[in-house]
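User: Could you go from structure to sequence for me? I need the amino acid at each position, not a summary. Structure tokens:
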């Protein structure tokens, strides 16, 4: 039986980040990933010389970017222009994103323009943490007066967080992300797969061992402490510590008697966010000025990622269209809506099509900060010594990939503290009850 100090289940951004930090601290680390390739939802698919992320991916100037830089990643790419349009009542209009577009947009009346202009400066000074205790709906309705400005805010904040549930979503985290977005986001050359590649190389150089195409099926524990991880093919790896960097339901399933632990609470409170994505590579853009479009009365978003990132060998534009889904969705309806959005924004796009990818229903994140949460997940599973969680669902106020990197670092710092015997036992490892 192999022996490792740290076993990480899941080779997405959270698992890879945890692997680098654990190995940097000198821990003998193994990553178990059930897919053939590493990266989870940050993989990039290559098709006819075009790099397709799984839907549009923007890196905010937040935890993940800082963490990637700390790990020595190069992060090649550029900030896209934020000149935007909005879809309102089936038509495209200039969307206010700065003083010039605010003056010209026909979307908002004079009073709304004055209010929106004030917000452009107020947002920079605002402390989003002041709104950690209320829903996004409460924040918008209580702070934004003009009805059209409200619509625009809902649309911008939905796009920032991917979440279409203003009554559930906690206002603070999404406002924090929005403030970060105002500094500009990074569209990454060759897609997020290049981040995954660099993470894998960094981890490998530090001695991390990867087991891909290997599904973990049991995290064995005895007398309140982890012992080993068992894979579907029978591989067993003894471990001092295990980080579950897989989605909450998968994490719950792997741990015997998980129903008696916090893993059950975290699984039950998690609200998965899904979208439908149509990614297309176009030889040229029929409407070059329409590369960034928010749906205002429609839950859609379109961005040409190649206006800032190198994503194709032959200069095709890689355009992503996203539909935010609720609980019920129909793939055929969603595809029609996505294609309809492209028809509106880039009429004639079918004649320029070089490659495409349709994802009918993909999880953007496993959970997000919302008002029904009873506990912040992790970093430690308090009932089982040496067991930790990480992933975009294990957020303590971060969202999307920032939650993946932040939770991975929390898990590693807690396991390092435990391995040095700093004040942790099986039953008091960590618990934040909201
Ligand atoms: C369409 C779309 C758009 C997005 N846009 C953005 C964006 O603009 N900005 C942003 O910050 N984020 C964005 N995201 C979110 C971002 O991609 C994710 O938050 C991040 O990649 C999640 O990483 P993770 O490691 O937490 O989870 P995952 O990537 O899901 O990794 C979990 C890994 O665990 C593995 N696994 C599961 N069970 C087992 C098992 N039993 N044994 C072994 N392995 C297992 C899985 O195969 C997977 O590789 C987007 C996501 C999508 C889908």
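Assistant: Here is the amino acid at each position, in order:
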């Amino acid at each position: 039986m192999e022996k490792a100090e740290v076993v990480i289940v899941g080779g997405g951004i959270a698992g890879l980040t945890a692997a680098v930090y654990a190995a940097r601290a000198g821990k003998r680390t193994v990553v178990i990933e059930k897919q053939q390739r590493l990266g989870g939802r940050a993989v990039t698919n290559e098709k006819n010389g075009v790099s397709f992320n799984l839907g549009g991916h923007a890196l905010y100037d937040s935890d993940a970017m800082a963490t990637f830089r700390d790990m020595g990643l190069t992060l090649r790419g550029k900030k896209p222009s934020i000149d935007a349009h909005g879809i309102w009542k089936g038509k495209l209009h200039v969307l206010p994103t700065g003083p010039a577009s605010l003056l010209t947009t026909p979307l908002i009346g004079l009073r709304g323009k004055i209010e929106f202009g004030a917000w452009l400066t107020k947002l920079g000074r605002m402390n989003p943490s002041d709104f950690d205790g209320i829903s996004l709906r409460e924040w918008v309705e209580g702070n934004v007066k003009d009805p059209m400005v409200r619509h625009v805010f809902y649309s911008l904040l939905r796009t920032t967080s991917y979440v279409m549930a203003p009554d559930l979503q906690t206002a603070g985290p999404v406002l924090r992300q929005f403030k970060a977005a105002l500094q500009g986001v990074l569209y990454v050359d060759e897609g997020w797969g290049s981040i995954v590649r660099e993470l894998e190389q960094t981890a490998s150089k530090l001695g991390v061992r990867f087991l891909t195409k290997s599904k973990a099926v049991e995290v064995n524990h005895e007398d309140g402490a982890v012992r080993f991880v068992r894979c579907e093919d029978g591989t067993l790896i003894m471990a001092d510590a295990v980080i579950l960097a897989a989605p909450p339901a998968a994490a719950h399933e792997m741990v015997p008697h998980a129903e008696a632990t916090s893993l059950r609470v975290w699984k039950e409170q998690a609200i998965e966010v899904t979208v439908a994505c149509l990614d297309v590579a176009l030889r040229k853009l029929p409407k070059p000025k329409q590369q960034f479009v928010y749906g205002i009365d429609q839950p859609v978003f379109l961005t040409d990622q190649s206006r800032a990132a190198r994503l194709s060998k032959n200069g095709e534009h890689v355009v992503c269209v996203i539909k935010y889904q609720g609980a019920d969705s129909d793939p055929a309806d969603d595809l029609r809506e996505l294609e309809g959005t492209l028809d509106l924004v880039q009429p004639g796009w079918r004649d320029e099509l070089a490659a495409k990818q349709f994802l009918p229903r993909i999880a953007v994140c496993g959970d997000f900060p919302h008002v029904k949460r009873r506990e912040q997940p992790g970093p430690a599973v308090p009932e089982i010594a040496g067991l930790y969680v990480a992933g975009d669902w294990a957020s303590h106020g971060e969202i999307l990939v920032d939650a993946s990197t932040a939770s991975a670092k929390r898990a590693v710092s807690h396991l390092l503290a435990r391995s040095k015997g700093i004040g942790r036992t099986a039953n008091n490892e960590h618990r934040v009850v909201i």
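One structural detail worth keeping in mind: The chain has three domains: 2-41+194-270+369-433, 45-75+186-190+273-365, 91-182.
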